[in-house]
Design a protein that fits this description.
The longest helix is centred in the N-terminal third of the chain and has 19 residues. It is built from 28 helices and 38 strands. The N terminus is likely disordered. It folds into four domains: about 100 residues, no CATH class; about 280 residues, Rossmann fold (3-Layer(aba) Sandwich), CATH 3.40.50; about 250 residues, Dimethylsulfoxide Reductase, domain 2; about 150 residues, Barwin-like endoglucanases, CATH 2.40.40.20. A six-stranded mixed beta sheet has the order 5-4-20-19-18-6, covered by helices on one side. The two termini are about 20 Å apart. Helix 5 packs across helix 20 and helix 13 packs across helix 14. The relative contact order is 0.15. The protein has about 850 residues and is α/β, with parallel strands linked by helices. Bound molecules: iron/sulfur cluster (SF4). The site of iron/sulfur cluster has 14 residues, from helix 3.
Length: about 850
């Protein structure tokens, strides 16, 4: 089998050509997924005998959804391409892959694949030498041995300490369902991607993080101004998302980018940059509100849409308060400083945000009610400590200026629906697997997860429920990770490593030797999505992506479901209860259940034509049906996409009906209006016990424990403290979250430096390429510097997801791991504050750093 990988590597696209293509794509647009120069249609004509393109998954969930295809010959992958199912056009755009999708073959066929079940050399039932987790060698064991060990440790933990002593980490949850059926496990809740957007804001009348908070993509060209707050779609989820922005640019829209850096999407769109320190967006927007209030004159200078405010909201001013409001305060008077003596002026915010006063004034005047403005934000600003009220103030500004419910006007979050909101035009069917519920209610908030396990107690607030807090004891003995990389991906990694060296047993299912696998006792090798029957993927509302099995399972890898079934047998669980159908049937069910919208936009019908022959060939259960595309054609194409055109029936404007007629189309709040003032919000958050502050019913500014203000020891006199910088962790083009860090082409194309502001670097004598030590109270890490003016002064940008390489003697991570600098500090809402921890940095004079692409991939040392 080792020859298989070598042969595949030899037959694949050359490294040089890949790097050249990546560089060309990046240079042309800074958007590896969007360049028209990469468009090809009809490549299949050049196929040799025996070669076949198979639609292949890019499964790491960057937020985008792209068509990837693998050329298979003699059972191995020799090349990849992206969407060439039809010519590219704005109406009917291709779903082009970025360099991460295009290098997926190096991930699947990487030297870091776990080839067979592994046992840590110094592990013994009960733990063995636990301190060696993360640096031990490995021994090959059989599947039977591995599964017997795992089952025995799970049984022991449950019998001795109860099922809540088992902590499971899973996104999809095959094994987790078995563990639920066995008595349950402790879980964790995390606002991860969505930050403070995870709070149920629909209860005050706004879109949460669903597909309905902004307008259909065709409306982008109606905006005169498009404002992007936070986020960088050119890196995080390149593809259609950024392509739609380019269409708006072509149509003449001006772009404004707000955030701590002038990033790739801002540069691509030639946006005006408004710099704002990470985590201070609420202060920035309060000053925008102040400017609107101070400068508005309905006759001579109409900035505020009073009609929208008065008809559609509650709590803006004393005349529009909800009945029975507990606090005799309103948003407008708070902004004007009536309660705390601090008017939230541009000068006030400038000190906090680092934003020039004229930029704040510019923003407020630009979003005047008569300008057609789309205000979009990504989730990065919501993933900060101190971002609790960011969604609330963002929507409040939208209602103040009336940028809701009309062509050209929009205000909301855009990452999930990729700036293309509205009902899905094509939907996937369900797999048919039953939902197994978890009898254990223990559920720990992620920022404090590792510390809670170390301390043996945690604050229970439900799972995404923000219930009144209750301190509970917890005694975790087993960590079972199924399809996540929690040690690498959660904050407080230093504590995470301690936990991994404390508990009795750590088992991980993984296809490669990632950080989670490295710190385990037993590694169970799983297949990748390229080695499984297939799946239907959704997110873009106009398409379903269907990917199929590309190659046979490599080495001794097994699917998650196979592992779960084998474990279920050993735990005495009725397999039929958890897995009544096999993986192929699940894939078939997803396809058969696909539905597509009718041309009038009013109803849905089956998408796929399935014949009795298809059912017989697939050897599955099902009924013949009639649809718009044949089963085999869909599998071959890998995508079904609804073609759009101007004036079709699929347009959508968020809040349209409500803005026109709020009485007959109420929002989801108790009053039916958008509640700028909400006692429910304040009471819910104040009762959790998470907060060490008191929430107001309206959006307000609070000083967070780790934030820009915390970089000063004396804020009033502007004296800097021990950690004078704020570190953020942008999603980087080289990885999707914590995935693909070992991929050689990606390492060579994207060097993963720490991005520093020129003035900050010069003060410390640092230039591009120098090794830099970055540290704070939570950890220390090293990276080569990239110095420029595109990072704000005071900000350190450390890309997210680099796999840790801890020097145990010095306690310094040599890899540039972002989460080693994140501590166990939850925002007052329980949000992980990935983007605003305080830190310091200096030139590193220790052992020189080797560029990542010259370091051998991280692999398990098997004896
Ligand atoms: S990583 Fe995201 S943008 Fe890139 S190919 Fe995969 S799905 Fe598309």
């Amino acid at each position: 089998m080792a020859d298989f990988v070598g042969k595949a590597a030899g037959l694949s696209i050359s490294r040089r050509n890949f790097i050249k293509a990546s560089a060309a794509a990046a240079a042309s647009l800074s958007l590896a997924g969007c360049s028209n120069s990469l468009s090809t249609v009809g490549v299949d004509a050049a196929l040799d005998n025996g070669e076949k393109w198979v639609s292949s998954a890019c499964w790491h969930n960057c937020g985008g959804r792209c068509v990837n295809k693998a050329l298979v010959k003699d059972g191995m992958v020799i090349r990849q391409k992206t969407d060439d199912t039809h010519p590219d056009s704005p109406e009917y755009p291709q779903h082009r892959a970025c360099l991460r999708g295009r290098s997926q073959q190096q991930d699947v066929l990487g030297v870091d694949r776990i080839k067979y079940p592994l046992k840590r050399k110094n592990w013994q039932p009960g733990g063995g030498d636990k301190s060696l987790r993360g640096r031990d060698e490995w021994e090959r064991i059989s599947w039977d041995e591995a599964l017997d060990y795992v089952a025995a440790e799970i049984k022991k933990a449950k019998e001795n300490y109860g099922p809540q002593s088992i902590m499971s980490f899973a996104r999809t949850g095959w094994t987790r369902n078995v563990l639920y059926a066995y008595g349950g496990t402790t879980t964790h809740w995390d606002t991860t991607s969505y930050g403070s957007y995870r709070f149920p804001w629909e209860k005050i009348g706004m879109g949460q993080y669903d597909n309905y908070s902004v307008n259909d993509r065709f409306d982008l060209k109606n905006s005169d101004t498009v404002i992007l707050v936070g986020g960088n779609s050119a890196w995080s989820a390149p593809g259609l998302y950024s392509y739609f922005f380019l269409q708006a640019k072509k149509a003449g829209a001006e772009f404004i980018s707000v955030g701590p850096n002038y990033n790739a999407i801002a540069a691509t769109l030639d946006a005006r940059w408004i710099p704002v320190h990470a985590g201070t967006d609420t202060a920035f927007l309060l000053a925008v509100a102040h400017t609107l209030i101070a400068e508005d004159d309905p006759v001579s200078n109409p900035l505020i849409d009073w009609d929208c405010l008065n008809r559609c909201t509650l709590g803006f001013d004393a005349e529009h308060m909800p009945e029975g409001a507990k606090l005799k305060e309103n948003f407008k008077d708070y902004v004007l400083g009536e309660y705390d003596g601090v008017p939230k002026t541009a000068a006030w915010a400038s000190k906090i945000c680092g934003t020039p006063v004229e930029d704040i004034l510019f923003y407020a005047r630009k979003i005047r009610k008569d300008n057609k403005v789309a205000m979009y934000h990504d989730y990065a600003p919501a993933r900060c400590i101190g971002a609790e009220d960011f969604p609330h103030i963002f929507a409040t500004i939208g209602f103040m200026t009336g940028h809701m419910g009309k062509p050209g006007h929009a205000c909301g979050n855009i990452h999930k629906e990729q700036v293309n909101a509205g009902p899905a035009l094509v939907k996937a069917g369900g797999s048919g697997l039953p939902k197994i519920s978890n009898p254990v209610k223990d559920c720990i908030n992620s920022p404090g997860l590792w510390k809670s396990i170390l301390d043996g107690k945690y604050l229970y607030t439900g799972s995404f429920q923000w219930l009144p807090g209750e301190w509970k004891d917890i005694d975790i003995r087993v960590l079972y990770t199924e399809d996540k990389a929690v040690l690498q991906g959660l904050p407080a990694m230093t504590h995470g490593i301690e936990v991994h060296r404390k508990v009795d047993f750590v088992v991980t299912q993984a296809f490669n030797y990632n950080t989670q696998a490295k710190y385990s006792d037993i590694i169970l090798p799983v297949t990748t999505q390229w080695e499984r029957p297939g799946m239907v993927m959704t997110r873009d509302k106009e398409a379903v992506l269907v990917y199929s099995q590309v190659i046979e399972p490599l080495y001794e890898a097994k699917s998650d479901q196979w592992i779960a079934v084998e474990l279920a047998k050993r735990l005495g669980i009725d397999v039929e209860q958890v897995f009544p159908i096999d993986e192929k049937q699940q894939f078939f069910n997803q396809i058969a259940g696909c539905t597509v919208i009718s041309e009038d936009g009013k109803s849905y019908s089956p998408l796929v034509t399935i014949t009795a022959d298809d059912i017989a060939k697939w050897e599955v259960k099902g009924e013949p049906q009639s649809g718009k595309i044949g089963l085999q054609e869909l599998i071959d194409r890998g995508v079904y996409q609804v073609e759009r055109h101007e004036g079709d029936n699929y347009g959508y404007y968020a809040y349209e009906d409500f803005i026109k007629d709020p009485e007959n189309h109420p929002l989801t709040s108790p009053s039916g209006k958008f509640e700028i003032y909400s006692d429910w919000k304040a009471d819910t958050l104040n009762n959790t016990g998470i907060a060490n502050m008191t929430f107001k019913p309206y959006p307000s500014y609070t000083v967070a424990p780790e934030c820009y203000e915390a970089t000063f020891s004396d804020w009033e006199n502007q004296v800097k403290g021990e950690y004078p910088y704020v570190v953020t962790n942008p999603h980087y083009l080289r990885r999707t979250h914590c995935n693909q860090d070992n991929v050689p082409w990606l390492r060579e194309a994207c060097h993963n430096p720490v991005f520093l502001n020129r003035q900050d670097a010069e003060k410390k004598g640092i230039k591009t390429g120098d090794a830099v030590l970055i540290w704070n109270a939570h950890g220390k890490t090293l990276r080569q510097a990239s110095v420029s003016d595109t990072t704000m002064p005071g900000i350190v940008e450390l890309p997210h997801g680099r796999w840790i390489d801890m020097d145990e003697k010095t306690g310094i991570d040599r890899a540039g791991t972002d989460n080693i600098l994140c501590g166990p500090v939850a925002s007052n809402m329980g949000v992980s504050g990935y983007n605003n921890y305080t830190c310091d940095f200096k030139k590193y004079d220790g052992e020189p750093l080797i560029p990542d692409h010259l370091i051998p991939a991280q692999t398990a040392k098997v004896l």
